[in-house]
Design goal:
Immunoglobulin-like, mainly beta, 166 residues
């Protein structure tokens, strides 16, 4: 009987020592994002959101201060159209509360991106369908910002073909 209690106590101490060894991840306080893919590599042009794709990212943040409270309208994920260098879209990530001493977090992000217009040379209007230019190619650049204002690295997608025909 005593040996069973002794065995249980030793087992409890071993489990307790393993629990004490668990540490929070050691990520930098600036968010870090990685490109994880897109749901498709082509879209049909339009300015009415008739086509879309999903963009997949992973992230880490050492102090876990991503997102803003639900009533705050601040957007912190930025999508840049590499053809123009302009921000095409902004997203708001969900609020992640900071907890405890080790706040390192990691996770996945899925964004729904709607199609855009083809851009043409020779002063041809965007979103037209000239037979001379049946496709356009876009690469999206993405970065995010945490509540402290730290900006992540900038990543980019693979080339996405925009079908210019209507």
């Amino acid at each position: 009987m005593i040996t069973n209690i002794l065995k249980l106590n030793i087992l409890f101490l071993i489990i307790l020592s393993f629990c004490g060894c668990i540490t929070s991840p050691d990520y930098p306080i600036e968010p870090v994002i990685e490109y994880a893919g897109v749901s498709k590599t082509f879209m049909t042009q339009n300015n009415l959101n008739t086509d879309s794709l999903y963009l997949y990212l992973t992230f880490t943040d050492g102090d876990g201060d991503l997102g803003h409270q639900p009533e705050d309208t601040t957007r912190n994920i930025f999508i840049i159209d590499s053809r123009t260098g302009n921000i095409q879209d902004k997203f708001k990530s969900p609020f992640i509360p900071e907890e405890g001493v080790g706040n390192g977090i990691s996770g996945d992000i899925q964004l729904l991106l709607y199609t855009t217009c083809c851009l043409f040379p020779e002063n041809i209007p965007p979103c037209s369908a000239p037979t001379k230019y049946p496709t356009d190619t876009i690469v999206y650049q993405i970065y995010l910002k945490d509540r402290a204002g730290n900006i992540s690295n900038t990543i980019q997608t693979e080339p996405i073909v925009i079908l210019c025909s209507k």
